[in-house]
Structures are given as C-alpha cells and as structure tokens.
Amino acid sequence: MTTECALQTNRDRDRLCLTFLGSWTIHTPLCAIPAIHPLFSPPVTTLCFNTDNLNEWDSRLLIELSRIIDLAESQAITVDNQGLPPGVRNLLQLTKQNKDKPSAAEKTTTPGFLADLGNHTLGFLRESQEMVIFTGEIILAYSRFFLGRARFLKEDFFYFLYDCGPQSLPIVTLISFLVGVILAFVGAVQLKMFGADIYIADLVGLGMTREMGAMMAAIILAGRTGAAFAAQLGTMQVNEEIDALKTMGISPMDFLVIPRMTALIMMMPLLALWADFIGILGGFFIGCLTLDISASLYYEQTIKAITLNHFSVGLIKAAVFGYLVAFCGCLKGIQCGRSASSVGKATTSAVVTAIVFIVMADAAFTFLFNIIGV
Amino acid sequence: MTSALPLIDVQDLTMAYGDFILQQNLTFSIAKGTIFAIMGESGCGKSTLLKHMIGLKRPAIGTIHYYGKDFWKSSPQEQIQLLQKAGILYQSGALWSSMTVGDNIALPLQQFTDLSPKIITELVALKLALVGLKGFADYFPSEISGGMRKRAGLARAMALDPDILFFDEPSAGLDPISSKSLDDLILQLRDSLGATIVMVTHELPSIFALADDSVFLDTETRTMLTTGNPKILAKESDITKVRQFLSRNALSPEKGLQH
Prior knowledge:
The complex is a heterodimer. By secondary structure, chain A is an alpha/beta fold. Chain A has helices at 59-74, 86-96, 113-146, 154-164, 169-193, 200-238, 241-247, 252-290, 295-305, 308-335, 340-372; strands at residues 6-12, 15-24, 46-50, 54-57, 78-80. Chain A has two domains: 6-96, STAS domain (Transcription Regulator spoIIAA, 2-Layer Sandwich), CATH 3.30.750; 138-372, no CATH class. In chain A, 68% of the residues lie in helices and 8% in strands. In chain A, strands 1, 2, 3, 4 and 5 form a five-stranded mixed beta sheet that branches. In chain A, a hairpin with a 2-residue loop joins strand 1 (6-12) and strand 2. Chain B is globular, with a radius of gyration of 19 Å. Chain B has a domain at 95-161. Chain B is α/β, with parallel strands linked by helices. A six-stranded mixed beta sheet of chain B has the order 6-7-8-3-9-10. Chain B has a four-stranded antiparallel beta sheet with strand order 2-1-4-5, with helices on one face. The chains are: A alpha/beta, B alpha/beta. The A-B interface holds A 25-27, 29-30, 58-60, 62-63, 66-67, 86-88, 90-91, 94-102, 106-107, 337-342 and B 96-98, 109, 113-116, 119, 122-123, 125-127, 129-130, 132-136, 138-142, 148, 158, 160-161, 181, 185, 188-189, 191-194.
C-alpha cells in the first residue's frame, strides 16, 4: 500500500490512452487526477486503457473508471476496455445491469411549509380517528371479556398485575415521599407568615389525596409500564407476532390489550392510595421536625381535613389515569411500524401522549369536581 | 505469505452454550479464493459456527486462525483489523433501520477510510449498481422488499472491499429466480474481486452452483462428518447421510443400508 497511484495520458492522433499506475484502493491516499474533460478536445474517437503497471485496485478504481467512461460515452467516444483487467471489466459490466428501477424516479423532494402544515394537520386528524377506533375496539374487547368470551392467558394477567403493582412500589414510594416533603416545605414558608402552621397538615393531606398521589403514580407508571407496553407490542409487531395471533383467530385486543389494561386500571388506584399515605407521611415528618407541630396535633388535623370525598376524587382519577396510560401504551405499540427505529418512536410517543392525556384529564376533572362541588 | 497457507484455519473447535456442547472437534481450512459452504441440517450449529468465525462468539475449545494469526489470542485492535477485511451478510440483511440504504453502505467508509464525502457517495452508488439497486440510496430499509434488503446487505458487506465475505443463508427466503440471480452475483463478484466466500446454507442449488469446498455438520454425532467439494461428495462420499443430504433423499433407513 506504499506505492502511490498515478494516471498518465498519451494521445495518438484521435486515440486517447489512459495509463493507470500504482495502487488504486480506498486505503491509498488520493492522487492528483488530471481533469479528463479538456483531454477530449480536440475531439477523440477512441478511449483506451493501459493497466500493465497497476499494482492493486478495488472500488476506488472502479468509480474513477465509470466516471471517465460515462463522460466519454456522453460525447459519443468509443470506449475500448480491452486494456482493463478482466475483473474490472466484469464489474463494470455488472454495474450496467439495472434490474430494479426505483419506482418514482428518485425520492420526492422535501415539501414546502404549507404542504408540511397540511400534512401535519391531516396526520393529526388521522391519529385522532385512530384513537376513536381503538377506543371502540377496547369497548368491544371488554364486552367480550365480560361475557367470558375473551381469549387471554391468566398467567399474563397476573404477571402484569405483579409488574404494575409490587414492582412499581419502590419508585412510587420514593417519589411520593419526596412530593409530600416538597408540598410541606412550600406551604410552610407561606403559612408561617400567618401563624397558621397547623394548616400544613390540611395542605399536604388535600394536595396528596386529591391531586398529587394519583398524578405522580400515573406519571411514574407512564414512564415505566406504558413505555414497556409500547415496546413489547411494537417488537411483537416487528416480528409479525401480532399477525400470527390474528390469523390464528385470536384478537390481539383480547390477548394483549385486555390483560395489560385491566392490570393497570386495577393497580393504579392502589398505588395512588399508597402514594397518598406515603406523601402525607413525608409532610408529617417536615411538619413535626421543622415546624415544631406535635405529632398528635398533626395527626388530628390530617384526619379532620381529609374526608372520604377527597380520597374518592383521587382514586377515581387514578383509575382513569391507569386507563389512559394503558391506552397510549397499547395503541402506540399496536400501531408501531416494522423496524427497530419505529419501536423507539412508538415508545417515546406512548409516554409523551400518556403524560399529556393525564394532565389534560386532571384539568378536566378538577373543573368538573369544582362544578359539582365535591 | 505462501499460497499454501490457508486463509482461515479452524483447529479442533468446540462450540458450546454453557454446558451444552453444540459441535466438537471441528477441523477444516479454507483456501484463498474458494467459495466454502457450511452445510448441515437445521439447528446443527451452522450459524453458530459462522458467529465463531466472525468473532461474535468465543470458542469453548480450539482455535481459529486468519492468515496464520490466532483470532482469539489477538488484541482487540488486531481483531478489529481482521474483521475489517471481512464483510458479513446477515440472514435478513440486518440493515440499520434508522438509516437509508445509502447511509448504511456509507457508514463503514466514513468510519474507516479517509475518503472525501463526494468519493463516498460515488462508491455507494457503485456498490448499489453492482448489486442491481441503482438509485435506491435514499430509500429506507423498510421501504424496499426482502430480496432487495438482502442485496443491499451484500452491498454493505462489500463496502470496504473485503478479502473475505461471510454469508448467512444468502438465498433463504428468496424465490428461486431471485436466489439464482443472487448466486450468479456472488459468483461474478468472487471471480472479479478474487474474494474468499464462506457461506452458511442448506439450499442445494446454491451449494452446487457455488461451492468449491465445504464442511458438513451433523446434529446427532455433534461433529463434522466430512469436508470437500459438494459436487464430488454427492457422488463419492461413503457417508450415507452426506449423500442423502446432497441428493435430497428422505432419511429412510433401508435406503441408507443398501449403499
């Protein structure tokens, strides 16, 4: 690979001969190649090659040659390739055959701004439509489920219960404890100014049970379980496993979606309840340790503040959030394309959509409960 | 290096998954410029043998030499250098789905050569033209058919103009015509590039059309039964199973005993 490459040209009246010397490989440094175009004037009729002193060659030589030959052919110059090594001649011949013609010439060019806007709007509409269709399919699947005609594996269902519940407990515990602590700190600064320290118990209690318990559990599960659902179903889509279920007469909705969704809807309120309790505990620590509220007083105040109403508000929300997380995870997984990168996109989209839906649903609930005065 | 020295030399190789021994006492060598077929029934460990040869799996016992150099005793750097002299076509192409076909072929060129982007683009176009996919550089793997993905995979395997090409089931999943044209392509490439080709296959037409040399792996005895040119083995092998495999005879014991 030490020999450098060189290209010599010699002209014999209307016959141009190119002599390739040295090594022409992709690993040898580039050599100066004279511009070929000027060599064709005054006009030549034949182009020939000499490769007697060519040491080694690979695709590097081929691209130079095909460029030169294309140029020559475009000027109706006869190409005499007898001087090329047989391997080179074969390969050049091979590049000429073109079995598959790309369907639409080349790929379409990038659309302009308006076309882009239109495409996105249409895409959004199509996506909304797909969500409505998926909701319909879920309703049908659950009607089969309640009639006892849905086919799925009980083991799957128990596995998902275990995965959504006990497996998620440590992270839910940690996050909700810290959220309780944060709520207490934020409240404490303000309430202290009014000498109303004791109401910190109300703030933490109400905040956790009505809002944060369900919300935090849902967001954690959206990242943990919703993403996992999308990735599992997406990979199954890539492997044609979902097609296999369909052709076997097993509805993927029954077999894949029902166990996941049911498990999540059942576990989410329990996790929210646990998050409520742990969050209040976090507030309790802060109240007792930094605000000097006596433990029994804090306890009394908390009991007084939280009524069953507040709990049920949180638990209803949690069940709905569970549905939303499972909905987004399963929908994006089943809609997934057929490649590894689309599994990634499906997972991201499942988490983002789930979190957006959770917050939107939460706002709607708050508004609704405000109107009916719960 | 003398021409007598085999390009790849496998000595007393044992392949195992944990305690489970898949194949043992495999000894064969592959000469430069040959098309070597790894044959055997499904599940006998053909693909695993390929994985051992391309450095994805470490042998339980035994050695694999490339150009007289022990692959598994070489430093990681040397291993990478050796592997760069090899191009590998995976069973279903294994194109990176997040990149276009062109980018798939360009990646090794960008990473391992000092060529300018313009030259790389030309090389990519050349490789695609060689495998009959001219103009498909901007397509994503998901937008082309399975046979085209395989040919694109072949173009990627040839990106660095390797000395050795490894094919895992090159014609599996292709219709007879596509599979024939892929075989022709492989043969032409070997003749033009002078590359050595190692392929895992159980497609008889491909074996007879391409292979100069082969090794036959057996599931029952967990070792190799024979080596040699499959065309000759089909007629002259004294091992019934090999003859049956190569003549596509059902494994009927009477028939086996007669010979």
